[in-house]
TrEMBL record, chains A, B:
Pfam family, one: FLAD1_M
CDD domains with a match to the protein in the record: cinA
PANTHER family documented for this protein: NICOTINAMIDE-NUCLEOTIDE AMIDOHYDROLASE PNCC (PTHR13939), NMN AMIDOHYDROLASE-LIKE PROTEIN YFAY (PTHR13939:SF0)
Name of the protein: Competence/damage-inducible protein A
Coiled coil region boundaries: none
SUPFAM superfamilies in UniProt: Molybdenum cofactor biosynthesis proteins
Residue span, MoaB/Mog domain: 9-168
Amino acid sequence: MAQQSKNAAIIIIGNEILSGKVQDANSPYLSGELRALGVDVQRISVIPDEIDTIGEEIAACRKKYHLVFTSGGVGPTHDDVTMEGIARGVGKPLTHHPILDQLLRTVYGGDLNPAQLKLADVPEGLELLHAEGLRVPVLRFENIYIFPGIPSLLVRKFEAIKERFRETPFHLRKIFLTGDEALVAEDLNKVLRLFPRLLLGSYPILHHPEYKVILTLESKDKAYLERATQSLLLFLPKELVLRLE
Amino acid sequence: MAQQSKNAAIIIIGNEILSGKVQDANSPYLSGELRALGVDVQRISVIPDEIDTIGEEIAACRKKYHLVFTSGGVGPTHDDVTMEGIARGVGKPLTHHPILDQLLRTVYGGDLNPAQLKLADVPEGLELLHAEGLRVPVLRFENIYIFPGIPSLLVRKFEAIKERFRETPFHLRKIFLTGDEALVAEDLNKVLRLFPRLLLGSYPILHHPEYKVILTLESKDKAYLERATQSLLLFLPKELVLRLE
């Protein structure tokens, strides 16, 4: 049974997030959506609007992960440098994209000023992913999917193309415990020795009236997950197990 | 006038964030608090509970940034590997810390089981930062401040020591515009040529009844910020400026 998933990195570009002015809604959205699609998000990076920093992050992530998603920095002003950063990271020049230029003329309804023209300057080799319901396509360079920072636009674009990312899903079980996680640490080690491919998390919850810990058990192999769950339930002290979900 | 600030990186450690099960509250809290203290957060990384990955992130960030804050992975179970990751990243062995051992005996009220004993295994050279109101001190290794992942505990610990991070504050002005940012992009470039040290952001806002863009102007030098703001107001088309805050 293949456990191997596609993995992904999410790169959030924007000084406004780092300075605490705006709370990032895009990485929680993307990580939840990608997980539901069966994709394993391995990194989220929030970085400033700086060409060099974006270039370095892109260069590192495009080789290390199957999929890379960027958000932010694609508008017309001085602080929108994502395209230049990606171009640097992939070692390509920026070129004016004629189809994107045409699309922008339709959107803006006429001639483009220099700031609007800049929106069609993209790394050489960039592709346009057209999809139903999108006036402006999603921009892709190889395994890098480039999204705007405005959450409602990102959601609309991601929704339009997300089926292409679907993998075998993760299956999840949760066990709720009424005692401290230090009391079950050795039981968790035991089940991991028997089921080394189990994805097992232990999360203390403060001040909940019913439980103190949530254990999460995950696998892409449902039968393996069920065997591991039953095995763990045998190891855990019965009086600590509140319920299984 | 010194523009130079202390900068910082925030490293959030936890599979539960990457898989979208839990929304990270710690990086928004820390980035807002650090900004208010005058610290310039330059990176937020969310990474999995993996010793190697944590080690690499720590090794890169401790040299590149003045301050590094970690959150998560400091509990007693198999997935709590932050201490091993930091030890790897700073090139020190893990050692059992006798004072931390004593503190844990007080907290747990007696003997420690193997999982609890592990909580006192820390990188050699780690310091304890005691502060008023803290039962368990903040753990520090050189410029790395190690926080628990549970938001209420992180807040309590950060509050107790935050004054040590205070710098010259950032001053902020906002200009609200009623037109598209492409219309003012050249005005923003102009003010940046005159005030190259100005921190200037331009953020489109969709579907707001009153404005379409918020410009943010920042500096640690209040007089410089005021001059830059007045200069920008002269460049901007008057009919687009809704208000200044």
